[in-house]
Amino acid sequence: MRHHVKHYFRRHEPKGHAHLHLKSCIGAILAMAAVGSLATVTHLPLLIAPFGASAVLLFGQPKSPLAQPANVVGGYLVAALLALAATSLFPGLWLAGAVGVGLAIALMLLLRVTHPPAGAVPLVAIAGQMNGVVLMEVVMIGSVLLVAIATLHHLIPPRQQYPIRIEESPAPVE
Q: What's the chain's Rg over C-alpha atoms?
């Protein structure tokens, strides 16, 4: 089996336009500023690292299935619930984190709400020693806010369709 180094460095993303990249940048700045501002007002630890990764998908790759609202909010909900279950079932922090991440991946895939940044939620819950109520508030408020801002952002020209709309095919004529 031959491995070529060049395969590791090949970029698969198509080239984009500078003005769209700038728009993505501005959208992410505004979204993270909104989350940070809300954190200041509510005193909730809303500014968690996975939300930064979600911003990459929401503002940089809005057509990705992984960036769709059901995936973002559903993925965070699944991961938070499994983080709570894992931390209550496994006393060792490292084991709870490992089990939480693994189960979150499996259930997100099973439910078709995969959102990679959400996979880090069990680790965030452990590192931040968040109780269940705070964890659920953080992931639900933060994920819904990011999706709402992304939805508005993509209405600004140059517009991008977000969320993706699947055209329904007409019913067959009998």
A: 18
Domain residue ranges of the chain, discontinuous segments joined by +: 15-153
Contact between 75 and 113 (Cβ < 8 Å): yes
Q: How many CB atoms lie within 10 A of CB 126?
A: 17
Q: How far is it, in rounded angstroms, from Cα 90 to Cα 96?
A: 5
pLDDT in tens, 28-50: 999 999 999 999 999 999 999 99
Q: Residue 128 is which amino acid?
A: G
**CA-based nearest residue to 142, from 62, 68, 44, 21:** 44
C-alpha distances (whole Å) from 133 to each of 108, 119, 125 are 21, 19, 11
Vertex 42, ends 39 and 45: CA angle to 5°? 45
Which pLDDT band holds residue 80 (cuts at 50, 70, 90)? very high
pLDDT of 169 above 60: no
Query: Are 86 and 99 within 8 A, CB to CB?
Result: yes
In eight-state DSSP terms, residue 169 is: P
Q: Is 70 helix (H, G, I), strand (E, B) or coil?
A: helix
- pTM for the whole structure: 0.89
Over residues 5-14, the pLDDT tens digits come to 888 888 888 8
